[in-house]
Amino acid sequence: MKLNTDKMIAETENGIGWMTFNNPQRRNALSLEMQEAIPVILGSFAQDDEVRVVVMRGAGGQAFVSGADISEFEARRSSPEAIEEYNRIGAEAGSAYRALGKPLIAMVQGYCMGGGLLTALRADLRIASEDSQFGVPAVRLGLGYGYDGVKALVDLVGVAYTREILLTGDRFSAQDAWRMGLVNRVVPASELESTVRGLARTIAENAPLTIRAIRVAIEEAAKDAAQQDLARVERLVADCFASEDYIEGRRAFLEKRRPRFVGR
Q: What is the pLDDT of residues 30-48, one digit of tens each?
């Protein structure tokens, strides 16, 4: 795929799509050009049937994403018009995450701050190294922190921890993040990549239609009852039972072998 920046890297390997934030000199601070590349990368992964799961990570070992690139704010967020354009590009990146339609894992090492934490919250699973740090320093920068970011935190960790994270602007350790429910696992830094690769391989080998139905059911379960589309969930479940993969799964179980799912 063609990207207009070298600060984002996209690779595919054995059913796994890797999206790397590649700005290590600035601890992978998220620049506007990086945000513009996200829809291109995720759109390509979404359309590639060979990609079963996506992993996002930061280059350099010091940070996942340390936040938005504040050095751009004077030029990019200093007028109502500039802020509107900045927000539009960010919204397109957010839409790309929602449209991915495949499991997304955040491999977090080092700083995961501000916009970096919001990025990690878009993942289905977050695996962190023991040396990771988390936080949202908006109150220390005078930034307005939008509803979507607040809602994502509340949905994941609850009101009390959201207040602690946002009102203090403090940094929290990986163990604190695990206690709050921000991350699924904390592992030594030396084991982070192997743990994430193993988890991604496990997911990639599972039935894609079943995974799709499960992810949609989880999304609907998190909504208010009046907003739920349970008919869509039922259709996706029915698709599983009508699929070649369901036949393959039964045969593999009876033959005591690993199933080979094709996503149809």
A: 888 899 999 999 999 999 9
Identify the three-state secondary structure at position 107.
Answer: strand
Pairing of strands 125-129, 104-108: parallel
CA distances from 215 to 103, 126, 208, 212, 240 (A): 8, 15, 10, 5, 13
Q: 109 in helix, strand or coil? A: coil
Q: Is 151 exposed, middle or buried (0-12, 13-18, 19+ CB in 10 A)?
A: exposed
In the chain, % of residues over pLDDT 90: 73
What DSSP state is assigned to residue 126?
Answer: E
Q: What is the pLDDT of residue 83?
A: 75
192 vs 134: CA distance, rounded Å: 17
DSSP 133: E
41's tokens: 């990368």
CA dihedral 112, 205, 213, 225 (to 10 degrees): -30
User: Per-residue b/e over 218-256, b at no fewer than 16 CB within 10 Å?
Assistant: eebeeeeeeeeeeeebeebbebbeebebbeebeeeeeee
Inform me whether the pLDDT recorded for 63 exceeds 80: yes
Give the span between the Cα atoms of 89 and 179, in whole angstroms: 33
* Backbone φ and ψ of 68, nearest 5°: -70, 155
Going by the DSSP 8-state scheme, the letter that residue 65 receives in this structure is E
What CA–CA distance (Å, rounded) separates 179 from 69? 29
